[in-house]
């Protein structure tokens, strides 16, 4: 299902209202959180839902990915972003908010440990996703296997340049990340893919309507039974 709304704020409020309704029915709901700019309007919407009485405090969360090797507490680490945008404001129990471990020590087991944590928890109910201009989901760049699980990956130069806006310089953008695999993402019970702005139009159209191919990681969503795509008009502009 593709839903086109006028602005990112409207899209965020729409998705947040859906999540809040689920959480009111099932307080131990598990949300898969993404980072980057795209999901921020959803988190704003969730804070508005909190203000009007939805209790999120029993919800759990699993993040999609994390940079490797940023110093602990770095404000642009995805752990810090999730804490700032979601855990703190919604009052989640920090013990129920998981982010892949991007610290250099033990990096070789970070993927396995994260998969085990998701599995022991019973999986993710709704996974929020953004899409990169390369078509990546999480940091699964073109060529990633549709069966892949959480593992260490190298960021493409395109993605490092795109993410440099969050750092003081390109040199500070990590080279590696730990990301859920496409196979991990496809196990979530509901996928919600968001995209805003013209810069995403081409990748979005290829993901939604193009051939299913490892050269377009976003096209993996076509293999899932329950996907909602929520976009603004600019991002929808290349859909047929
Ligand atoms: C973030 C993530 C990435 C982003 C994508 C889009 O956790 O995994 O796939 O969703 O890079 O980034 P933004 O939203 O900043 O355009």
From TrEMBL:
This is Glucosamine-6-phosphate deaminase. Keywords: Carbohydrate metabolism, Hydrolase. It holds the Pfam family Glucosamine_iso. The keyword Secreted does not apply. It comes from Demequina litoralis. Residues 10-227 form the Glucosamine/galactosamine-6-phosphate isomerase domain. InterPro entries: Glc/Gal-6P_isomerase (IPR006148), Glucosamine6P_isomerase (IPR004547), NagB/RpiA_transferase-like (IPR037171). PANTHER family: GLUCOSAMINE-6-PHOSPHATE ISOMERASE. It comes from the Bacteria.
């Amino acid at each position: 299902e593709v839903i086109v709304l006028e602005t990112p704020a409207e899209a965020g409020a729409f998705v947040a209202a859906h999540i809040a309704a689920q959480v009111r029915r099932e307080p131990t709901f598990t949300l898969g959180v993404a980072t980057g700019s795209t999901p921020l309007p959803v988190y704003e919407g969730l804070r508005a839902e909190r203000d009007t009485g939805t209790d999120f405090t029993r919800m759990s969360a699993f993040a999609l990915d994390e940079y490797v090797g940023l110093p602990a507490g770095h404000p642009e680490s995805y752990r810090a972003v999730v804490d700032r945008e979601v855990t703190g404001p919604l009052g989640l129990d920090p013990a129920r908010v998981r982010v892949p471990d991007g610290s250099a020590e033990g990096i070789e087991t970070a993927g396995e440990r994260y998969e085990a944590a998701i599995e022991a928890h019973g999986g993710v109910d709704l996974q929020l996703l953004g899409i990169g201009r390369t078509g990546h989901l999480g940091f699964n760049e073109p060529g990633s296997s549709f069966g892949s699980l959480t593992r260490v990956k190298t960021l493409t130069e395109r993605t490092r340049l795109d993410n440099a806006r969050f750092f003081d310089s390109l040199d500070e953008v990590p080279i590696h990340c730990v990301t859920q695999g496409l196979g991990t993402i496809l196990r979530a019970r509901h996928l919600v893919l968001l995209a805003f702005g013209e810069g995403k139009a081409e990748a979005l159209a290829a993901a939604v309507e193009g051939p299913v191919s490892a050269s377009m990681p976003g096209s993996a969503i076509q293999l899932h039974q329950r996907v909602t795509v929520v976009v603004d008009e600019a991002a929808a502009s290349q859909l047929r």
